[in-house]
## 1
Amino acid sequence: MAIADRPSTKFEPWKDPQARPIIDIVHVSKAFDGFPAVNNISLQIFPGEFFSLLGASGCGKTTLLRSLAGFEIPTSGKIFIDGINMTNVEPYNRPVNMMFQSYALFPHMTVEQNIAFGLKQQNMPASDIRDRVISMLELVHLRKYARRKPQQLSGGQRQRVALARSLAKQPRVLLLDEPLGALDRKLREQTQFELVNIQETLGVTFIMVTHDQEEAMTMSTRIGVMEEGRIRQVGTPTEIYEYPSSRFVADFIGEMNIFEGFVTEDEPDHVSIKSEEAGCDLYVTHSSSAPVGAQVAVAIRPEKVMITKESVQKERNCCKGIVTEIAYLGDVSIYHVELKSGKKILSTVTNQVRLTERPINWDDEVYLHWRPESGVVLTS
């Protein structure tokens, strides 16, 4: 799971009580035929952010994006853009632009004509349009393709034309609806970094809808994880991945091992959990507090679970099982281990030796263990 590596200078306006959001969504709901597609969402997004709305199909993320664009009017609540109430303002009067998943390029126009279209609708002087189009073509590295039609371009090039057209009007906020969905995996990964570089160069606030976890983790300053019309957690990619706030977020983002148990000790620096599934006591530091006796879950990422055939002398955070499956993915192997309780656990190991030299194989008895700081206690 890739996680965004933003510049070393910290960009965290959401932690500054004096910072003013460019987008302020206040208790917004949107229902279709009585069904709540968006359910009482409040969210602030700050200037210069690359914010992603992440969730499965039908979770409400596109409806929320369309409400920001003005294509949907909320059933209740308010949307402020740059401090102005835009809840009922027409799309063409909002300081935002939207880039659609289909790109929606005009097939009869050249690349430069597509980019210039919105500027002509604004009656911008011809010389200014020409200068703006040239600057956009240079930004997306398509100047030599200016006279081509969309059907003469690759998928990645069409995506960049759509981006240039969306940015040409210099919106305060750019809304992106699954912008990389039509690209193959390799091109999608390449384009992710291009989009981030363009966003950082221009300083425009990007709000992206995606169901692709790796895409959101790679590109975003912050992520809002959505489920059934609600935002379950908002945080940086690291916060979302390392410290999920609920079982849903833990399960949704990447792979996760989850042990059920009950709290036996709750101290300021650690929580102890007795788990019959794990067959051992679980010891977690840097975790949320939970009362003694409470039923909780402990989540541990597979890459944090160490696996060995040699006996490990640890009373806590250590269990024994049998290897039932091995998934070889080239750079890593994922070991599926069944514990005595019947619980299946995953351990991800970097392949530092060739497949034929693998030290652990099917049906081997192995020990799994992890550090106290690797687990997260989930109370919801």
## 2
Amino acid sequence: MYLTREEEKILDGEYGEVKEKMFRILVTIGDIYDADRMIEISSTQISGVSYKSIGDFGLEFLEDLADKGAEVSVPSYLNPAGIDTKIWRELGFPEDFAEKQMRIINAFKKMGVYTTLTCTPYLIGNLPRFSEHIAWAESSAVSFANSVIGARTNRESGISALASAICGVTPNYGLHIKENRKPDILIEVDADLKDISDFGVLGYVLGKMIKNRIPYIRGVKSANVDQLKALGAAMAATGSIALYHIEGITPEADDFDIRGLERLKLDERDVREVRERFSREEIDAVMIGCPHASLNEIREISEIVKGKRLKKTLWIFTSRFTKELSYELGYGKIIEGSGGKIVSDTCMVVSPIESMGFRVIGVNSGKAANYLPTLCKCKVVLGSIKELIEMIT
């Protein structure tokens, strides 16, 4: 791999121990994947934030980096943590967990990372342009950036994204290269996709079927931002898919010749079978926002719960920015008046909900449906927002 003179100086330690170690990580990744050089990036999005995910070892590693003067060189945004940093006591998060979680957040803050604590950075200002190179780690954000925006990023790990944040570059391989972004399977969809949960189920099925391939999807007549983020998030969770193309919708769909691709067909029966596979037990709570809910989703929920009194827990996970805006617009007050909570900085998957008494969770997310049984030991009921809220009113 070609390195510039400045990059060679970094490896020689002329810019300090921390930058040398971080750059060495990127060089090793580049060597593994036969990258020809490093390329500059405009932003990073860093995962591995929740204490539940990284534990004491990760906490000590981050604090050591921060204490040694590590500092990011490009705008860098942080994935959700394991608690709502403002109302964790009110919500019942364990105190010892919260204390260590705040230490992790403070270590990132000391390095200059924006502690946005959201998996949807593109909804709060970190919006890369088409074909721009970035280094993002959160799987759903990677899918959205590549597929819906047309930016270019591989699916980074938390440590490689942090290394890129500090060094300002990433190895030039994989989805940074145009020819590697071409679809390799054609998916023909014949199903009535009405709401976010339908797109989440479609993504759930596709991820399991095609693993990490790049699909070209035909038959989706229309899709809004929330539906596209739900689709990509589910595919990334069940199949490690970092890029998809939808005919007539996503920006690179017309850039490639799809003649001769292997074909798969999905119909209404495939979608219905997935819904029926999940538990129909009585739910303890409804949790929405995996990925984090947009303002439009919060508005929709406020319209559904307006004038109602919820009998069980309703948590809506979103960014702090979106939460504050939802209260300014009155949506938050309506939801709170019904007995629901808008929770920021965290999400159901990376928070310790299994230690807080939750056992059966209602979700509208294919990603959450995949992760909650394994990461939180919770059973899942999968449905639309309206269906789920009806279960707790």
## 3
Amino acid sequence: MEFKSVGGIYDALKGVVKEKEGAIEIADEGALRGGGLDAVVYNAVFNSNTEIKNEARRVITEAAKAVGIPSVSIQGLYEAMGRGECAGFTVPAINIRALTYDTARAVFSAAMKNGAGAFIFEIAKSEIGYTDQRPSEYTACVLAAALKEGWRGPVFIQGDHFQINAKKYVQDDEKEVGSLKTLIKEAIEGGFLNIDIDASTIVDLSKPTVTEQQRPNFEVTAALTEYIRGLEPEGITVSIGGEIGEVGGKNSTEEELRAFMDGYLAILGGRMKGISKISIQTGTSHGGVVLPDGSMAKVKVDFDTIERLSNVSREVYGLSGVVQHGASTLPDDAFDIFPKRGTAEVHLATGFQNIQYESPAMPGGLKKEVYSYLKEKFSDELKEGITEEQFIYKTRKKGIGPFKEQFWNIPEESRSHIGRELEERFDLLFKKLNAVNTRQYIKKWVS
């Protein structure tokens, strides 16, 4: 399947696309959904030749633009939500770690069934590392999935948890911020026009006042906001998120929200647009809490805090509302509460990874190979008091990158079965979050 030259891309799409003076033109829009696209996206991910890989990504991105599937910012919608002109639903932000092309296809298929337009594809800084997916690759997979499923309209791709490492920040703050700037630049150039900054890791609770505790957070977030504004493509306002409470820590308060926002806005001084949403901590943790037998612990989400802080963020600061992280492993009856309490956006990740690993269609041999690798590679994490089930659950995300091509190449029948399982889950989430029939809002508020 690996192309030996750039010409292989155009051979696979012969009669479908053509290049004219550096631009991609669509000769047969209907044929874009054919098998040639599968081969091109495979090479966009796995081709050993960097030139061929990059050209495959460019062809996919430009073909998507040509048929009306651009990667854009969700800023306009979130500004409308902040003005109170658009409400009643929560935007799902979906982290895809494995089988990215197939999973994104399932998202688009479920979205079309539900008339959904307001949903986000995202990948966190940490996930980029352990899943071995750079921004331009992730964008190519998502846009190829949109082409394959016949999607038309904007696509929202987001850098999730672009996070400051607290230990590295203490050692050399300029170097750590600089490394995040490098990632932000790569992400924007790779088609990520929505960026979530997470400097909540450097909140200093030893300080005597809430403002001083939040100061490192709002100062770094303001500096990175200015950096992003300087990189924006012409005519685009990147949607930026901030965060006041690290997920897994203590629940956020209104005082913290106000201290962060007042300090942050004072630094910006009205010179540029600020963040469009703010992430808070309400009792969840990334991936959920796994019990010794491998089952999930029940988590109580503080919906009162969500509602109170969402109201303050909108009414006082014009934000779209608050963002809930670590939600994919919550019980199903929790999801319809989010829109009722004014949650702007909810981030969902581990639950989809769990479906993929635990599907009866996942080849047992591959899963066994991944788990053996984890036990050997990360044996130091199998500490006393931790069961093997807990160890596997917590570490199996780290097997995705090393086995990425093996996951991609599982039999077509197995991938289709997993895709159907995922689509059922996305369908349920769109409905629970009331994120149905939102294409009308995208058409009105997103340019």
## 4
Amino acid sequence: MKKIPATVVTGFLGAGKTSLIRHLLDNAKGKRIALIINEFGDLGIDGDILKGCGDETCSDDDIFELSNGCICCTVAEDFIPTMEALLARPDAPDHIVIETSGLALPQPLVRAFQWPQIATRVTVDGVVTVVDGKAVAEGVFAADLAAVEAQRKADDTLDHETPLSELFEDQIAAADMIVVNKADLLGEMQADALVARLMGEARPGVHVVRSVMGKLPVDVVLGQGAEAEANMDGRDEGHHHHHHNDTDDRDDDHEHHHHDDFETFVVERAEVADPATFAQQVAGVIRAHDILRLKGFVAVSGKPMRLALQAVGPRVETYFDQPFGESPRATRLVVIGQAGLDHAAITQALSA
């Protein structure tokens, strides 16, 4: 049975986690997404915002709210039963998105996916760490430190008093993707410097992308295929912290630029003789051009079946999925990356 992918979204209060998730829901295109939201106290602010999305793919029944404190401190008594209830439903979701408290350690939550009750049915597709670009560039990690401290004091279940700098390090260490949100508040040189710094602090192969109001293409955020619970190397927290809630910035009504920082194009090429060699070639092109995602179908010489190819960063997966049938035998690859990709060079490299 194929495991249901789950994306963990972490980051401090006000970084933009709710905005990013709301944008995913608004652009789900029929994908059934269930949400688990880690709220502290009785306000349930994030849940109310997300329940108002008005999309058939995010009904109230698909939103589960944890209100017993920091999710990384209440895994056994709160998170696992919630997951079991969700997985027991006859209308299983296509994807699960989990928004952690801003003070939660992501690592214990990722390890919880190893628990026998859920290990065979769900996998961590990726950990997405959202940071407030301007605050991090200024060395304060969150725009409203007083609100973060109030959040910390309000959480009776918090069992770690970790400095924000150390909690930030843990969020970066756990990430499969880092989103520098509010990028419009940074100058170009400042943004470039912050992206370079975060890439240096993150594990190898982790992409750092910029966003405004959490607006990122769904294909960039979901479908990372990290299986993070089975790959904890380098993710482990080196400290202990705790805190809660996320009233995330409500983001202004102005649209600014949506996905202008990302681009997609299609490469068509002749049949491939050796799938394994071609997969290595694709991985090399991805590394050389910092491509975020590459997917499509490949025609292999002498094979009636088409070869499905999916790549996230340097990880390339291939499998024969179905005969070409009436469809033309063609190799078509969709390339997704941040703006500025060298189309000609990438096309030439993939066609070689």
